[in-house]
Amino acid sequence: MTNFAIFINPLFADKKSIFKLLESLQEEDRALHQDKSEISFFGDLGQAEILQKPVRIVDFDSSSSVPRIDCILVFGGDGTILKAKELALKASAPILGINLGYLGFLSESTLPEIRGSIRDLIAGKYQILSRMLITCSVIRNGQEILKDEALNDAVIYKGENPGLISVRIYANGAYVFDARCDGFVASSPTGSTAYSLAAGGPILAPHMQAMVLTPLNPHLLGIRPMVFAATDKLKLKVHGLSQSAWLQIDGANSLALEEDDQIVVAASRRSVKFIKLTKRTFYRILRNKMHLGK
User: Fold this and answer.
1) Using one digit for the tens of pLDDT, what is the confidence trace for 106-128?
2) Are 43 and 65 in contact (CB under 8 A)?
3) Cβ-proximal residues to 123 (8 Å cutoff; 6+ apart), any chain
């Protein structure tokens, strides 16, 4: 690996330390290759205002100007990795998360470890793991008005509604149940350890092909989280609204929902690839980061 894309949490206070580190890595590589560094760093046009040398800005929406990217170095927490999902899909490159945040569940490295991590990447000491995406479409009056992909989850939330909202669930056209609640979280296996878990949903191993549907504060105790196959197509119909509810995709408000809107959730044909450097298993990460069994 020699070509790296850089994606940084814009709120990180000490960005200069990242660029100094990247420069020092190039200097070390230059010394090894007779004054010509083989390592290059590229940044997306959308982050041009915060990126500095040695990062070169390119437009990843323009196929003619984009070099082949071997890996995307994402400096931030889990939220930053979710935002870097689009860049990973555009560049067709795996993500290496460098944790600058609180939990860093999706990260594989830290800032003090990044020098060794990049050496491992260059030496080919890594694995590539694929993580499933889910698609989310909104149908209003028979027309698709929004379609997006999520690495973590798609969330229907009551928003500023003072009371509960009603959501009717279908799987492959078959009626499942109707729930009065604050909303629902439809998550991928990756997202099963995020909002869905906080709402009482099950943990799925990241390599699984499945979706979790977790209710938010349902009025009836009999409404429980459910796991569906990745081959299923879920439809959630929102009704009983006194005012707009909200659809959130990977933690960002995407659309104000209206009465009788239908949200269709299914597995995407695409996936996001992640770099695996260490021998730490998913279960060890759960024990250390989530205090599983402690």
Assistant:
1) 998 888 888 889 888 888 889 99
2) no
3) none
Q: Could you tell me the domains of the chain? A: 3-126+277-289 (3.40.50.10330), 133-269 (2.60.200.30)
Phi and psi angles of residue 77, each rounded to the nearest 5 degrees, phi first: -100, -165
Beta bridge partners of 41: 4, 55
Q: Taking the model in full, what pTM does it have?
A: 0.90
**In whole angstroms, how far apart are CA 213 and each of 37, 61, 210, 218?**
49, 33, 10, 13
Task: Using the predicted structure, report yes or no on whether residue 63 has a pLDDT greater than 70.
Answer: no
Encode pLDDT of 126-147 as tens digits.
999 999 999 999 999 999 999 9
CA 241 → CA 140, 251, 257, distances in Å? 15, 22, 9
Residues annotated as catalytic (active site), given as ranges: 78
Beta carbons within 10 angstroms of residue 246's beta carbon: 17
